Amino acid sequence: MGYTIPVLPALDRAQRERFLKVYMAVMQEKRGDSDSDEEILDIPDLDPSSDDSDDDNLQAFIQHAIPMFAKNDGFDASDCTNDPVSISDFNDTECWLNFRFKKGDLYRLQRAFNVPAVMKTSQGHKFTGEEGLLIMLNRLAYPSRLSDLAPKFKRRPERLSELFRAMTDWLVNTYGHLLEDIKIWGPYMKPWSQALDNAECPIPGIWAFIDGTLRPLCRPGIFQGVLYSGHKRVHGIKFQSVEAPCGLIVHLFGPIAGHRHDSFMLRESRLLEQLEEYFSDKDVIFLIYGDPAYPISDFIITRFKGVNLTPAEKMLNKFMSSCREAVEWAFGKVLQYQAYLDFKKNLKILLSPVSNQHKAGVLVTNMHTCLYGCTSSRYFDCDPPTLEEYCAL
């Protein structure tokens, strides 16, 4: 985390340079980075030819401004020893509140993930895989400031940011296929379709639901028109997801600019091509149900459209709408347990990998569903695969 340069009043260039030198020296001393024994407030006396009155004014301003700006950002630098933390450092309650998993399941998650013992950030800093897992889970769980997490993990905020990015990139690169390749879910399509039939879904052969979601972002300085959704009245990026009745998001495509339509996402995702390839040699075809924004095809069906519908068609639409709500529950769980993704002021698309953060949040939520179930799995009485089965796909 770099130094925050305060806004200075109307000072000339020489005064600004002297003030900033003082300010940087103060911040270094506060954070334990300074090797100099020089008194901080003696530093402005650098230019003997400068006007004494200007130096006096500058000195007075420094005396007033330093207490406001030279704060320790909510943590004590001496506590950041860089000693790696481990799951054993937290009790059961702390594990659930900080990481959204029970303590015993964190060990299970670490084994299923097959997290490397030692990992490295793009800047070359090493950390243990166990520590990286905890940092990622804690960061996703709630939109806390990095300076608030520093005492807990004994690392500086800027290092925590590095580790969080390295861990989310590793997770998406290693397990991203679970959200990209729809064909790996082929063996589960029949039992999931039977679960929907048992739940009195009126259309046979449905195995999943499809929908798009817009994730609001902090308003960018450029490309505002591209990211702005006129429908939602917010800047954001869109994702397309396919959710199974067990509560897992089995396919996630994105990001797409916020102004794009769901039918455009479907075409760009090439989901229909994947399904056609999978069912090309199958005798039975299972279907995905979507809202009217999606075109009807051999693999996706939607509700009846139009105003002159028969009573039977209206009744069918009503029953299918109640079933299709399941995909909204999946979106809700991601934001409930990975609340960091719901705080748009932190989601700055030009400064951080927002897409990978969202995908990592979906993967972690899927693994949470494998362990504890969700609203969809209970509503349709459809158990998700075990954590080990999910990670082994």
Automatic annotation (TrEMBL):
<feature type="compositionally biased region" description="Acidic residues">
    <location>
        <begin position="35"/>
        <end position="54"/>
    </location>
</feature>
<keyword id="KW-0479">Metal-binding</keyword>
<feature type="region of interest" description="Disordered">
    <location>
        <begin position="34"/>
        <end position="54"/>
    </location>
</feature>
<feature type="domain" description="DDE Tnp4">
    <location>
        <begin position="210"/>
        <end position="340"/>
    </location>
</feature>
<dbReference type="Pfam" id="PF13359">
    <property type="entry name" value="DDE_Tnp_4"/>
</dbReference>
<dbReference type="GO" id="GO:0046872">
    <property type="term" value="F:metal ion binding"/>
</dbReference>
<protein>
    <recommendedName>
        <fullName>DDE Tnp4 domain-containing protein</fullName>
    </recommendedName>
</protein>
<dbReference type="InterPro" id="IPR027806">
    <property type="entry name" value="HARBI1_dom"/>
</dbReference>
